[in-house]
Design brief:
Oligomer: single chain
Strand content: 5-15%
Helix content: 40-55%
Structural class: alpha+beta
Shape: globular
Distance between the termini: 56 Å
Bound molecules: zinc ion
Largest sheet: 5 strands, antiparallel
Amino acid sequence: MAGRIPKSFIDDLVGRADIVEVVGARVTLKRAGSNYKGLCPFHGEKTPSFIVTPSRGTYHCFGCSAHGTAIGFLMAYDNLEFPEAVEALAEMMGLEVPRESTGVPERKDDNEDLYALLREADQIYRAALRSSDKAIAYLKKRGIDGPTAGRFGIGYAPDAWDTVLKQLGTSDARIAKLLQAGLVVANDSGRKYDRFRDRIMFPIRNSPRGQIIGFGGRVLDSGEPKYLNSPETPVFRKGHELYGLYEARQTPGRPKQIIVTEGYLDVASLVQYGVENAVATLGTATTAENLRRLTRLTDRILFCFDGDRAGRAAAWRALETALPYGGGTLELKFLLLPEGDDPDSFVRTKGADAFRALAEKAAPLSDFLVNELSARVDMGSVDGRSRFQAIAKPLLKRLPEGTYRAAVMDAFATALRLKPDVLDELMSDDKEPSRAAERVMHGAAKRKTVVQKVINLALHYPAAAARTGDSQRLAALNQPGADLLRRVFAAAAEITDGSTARVLETLRDDPDFQYLERIVAEPPLAIETEEDAAKELAASLDHLSEDAKRAADVARIISGNRPGTGPA
Ligand SMILES: [Zn+2]
């Protein structure tokens, strides 16, 4: 157990915190005399009754009586526990939270052992880099210079099974800790060996403390996986930390902007070429926790991803997570690089100025949302427009209520070629099941039954779906509703206990969630065992993929290509 946070520190922190800055990062505030005024984030309102008083360091809402300090605001708005809110506020101000010693001689913290081992492993990897011509040559080829390698503590895991195991696993207790830290793995027969072998090692530090909590290892050649990360451990939670954040925070002052990328090399290259304050997610999509932390540190977040399909998908997921942060004084921008480029290659070949010029043209969240959605559906057709609306509705609902949402709705109305009040009406149509979603499913009456049957079965028997839904077969489907089917299978694959409720819960944000809810409520099918469900699913998927293949062939013949010559 960490000790208590000293009262004096909390007093000092609250005294020094600028409540206008803290609240203003979440709520648009306007000066009103010696106070600031805005729309209350805790109850829906059209005229501002939410007052922030900087001289007192407090906020108060005359509408719903919400009130408190900067810490209270963070607790309420970000749904944090008190110590978390203190940590958050301290982080905004670049301070580390001290802990009181508990008086009793402190039992050594388990995690201290893990941090120590990770630190020792880091030393081993760094030393190995210095003596590996191969690894040094690789970094040179990738354009990473010595100072950058030093700044990020880049190392090398030698091409051996027991580099770390041999040097650090000097007792059974230490070997157990190495396993817990994710540095060593054990196979089924109990044989233990180093997780990271023949990889460039990027130590991942927490912020603001700077402790090494895990590693990302990149292959030197074309091997797979390209990046291998530490597993989740008691000290390494992937959704919480960001690579490069600690390093970025070593420069004093509040960063004007933080750039979120997907690769550790992207971060190192950007920083080396003078584009500061770049971070990367840890092999996951951008999480709400990532965003909450970043919004404390800066007023502008630039999501910068590759221009390929994976990059677009990553940007889209970031957008979905970022929606609740739209509006206010926080600027959220999206930049997709030209096809074939990633931030690393772009800044290396074209330089920092070219990158900054491109970044200036990044799309604000609202534009990106409208453009991406328009690109995904055919806005010329009625079906396309209704599909657009089916997807857009739940997304728009995640935007904070107020003038910002209204402005985005206007942009949608233009894209949809609808009068704003018509869109308004459609959006308020809350309790109706998603009719547009239904129409997508009904698109082709002949196939409807099979796709629906498969979705139904997959929801009722997620474990069977996880077994039968191989990605290649699923990817080939092009029937109406195939996207939804893929989303259901992906959710089923994520859930290990095979429970329908959990699968459904992970799909809560899905545009067609209401439709899925209805499917689950339908009477159970005439299938009673998981075995039978798996057989039925396999057969139906076969049927669908053959169907899809025939349709694709026909399309190719119509467009003048011979079957089998185009990309699959
Ligand atoms: Zn209120």
